[in-house]
Design brief:
By secondary structure, the protein is an alpha/beta fold. Helices cover 48% and strands 13% of the residues.
């Protein structure tokens, strides 16, 4: 594969439907989805993708889902990010971990401490970027950016794309080259990274996220390598 995306973002849809098809609890689908995430991170490292982003949960996911499912999901996060924190592969590949969203206002202290440790222990790395969007809504990110710009007293005529980017949650991330969504529903949700996906190639997989294995991932990357990004030309 001659061409690979520099920044690949994944919307992992289908965990709950995967569980429902098997008469299992929703959080069992989330747990299988976490296993898929581990597989995809490893495969992305093998392929050479330098910046990889996963949307873990929106604010609606955390507010509207049943309490028991929410508790189980937060427990899965706690287990998963403990593994990330202790992962030899993360340090071997010098992957900087970013946790993006309004999770500090949403999550319990124990989980927040683990997430902060992930950020702190990898902040000096620069070879890879591994980004997790938790308690994140793209429309709230854009609203937050606009409010920040207004508070700085910048005249509307002086607002540039650079200024907008500097006020986003994703200010340290490069633009997305390739956006992959699993679950068979070809749409975006709550403006996921709306500024950063402006020129992204899109890929919609029919597979539910727990079934989106290494082979399916490679097929998606192979398709990207065959496309031509015209960027308006």
């Amino acid at each position: 594969m001659k061409i690979i995306p520099h920044h690949l973002a994944i919307i992992p849809d289908g965990n709950r439907r995967w569980a429902k098809q098997r008469n299992r609890s929703p959080w069992e689908g989330h747990r299988e989805g976490a296993k898929t995430t581990e597989i995809l991170i490893k495969k992305a490292n093998e392929i050479g993708i330098e910046c990889l982003s996963f949307w873990g949960s929106s604010q609606d996911n955390l507010k509207k889902r049943p309490l028991e499912e929410k508790k189980e999901l937060l427990e899965i996060y706690l287990e998963y990010f403990h593994k990330i924190l202790e992962s030899e592969e993360v340090h071997k590949n010098e992957a900087k971990i970013n946790i993006i969203g309004e999770w500090e206002e949403q999550f319990p202290a124990k989980l927040k401490n683990v997430l902060k440790d992930c950020i702190q222990n990898t902040k000096h790395y620069s070879k890879r970027m591994l980004n997790f969007f938790l308690a994140y809504n793209g429309d709230r990110e854009m609203l937050h950016a606009i409010q920040n710009i207004i508070s700085q007293g910048i005249h509307p005529e002086n607002i540039t794309p650079k200024i907008i980017k500097q006020n986003l949650f994703t200010k340290e991330l490069p633009a997305v080259d390739y956006l992959v969504r699993t679950g068979g529903e070809p749409h975006l949700s709550t403006g996921f990274m709306m500024w950063d996906v402006a020129n992204a190639q899109l890929y919609f997989s029919q597979k539910l996220y727990p079934d989106f294995n290494a082979q399916a991932f490679e097929e998606a990357i192979e398709e990207f390598s065959q496309r031509k990004r015209r960027l308006g030309a």
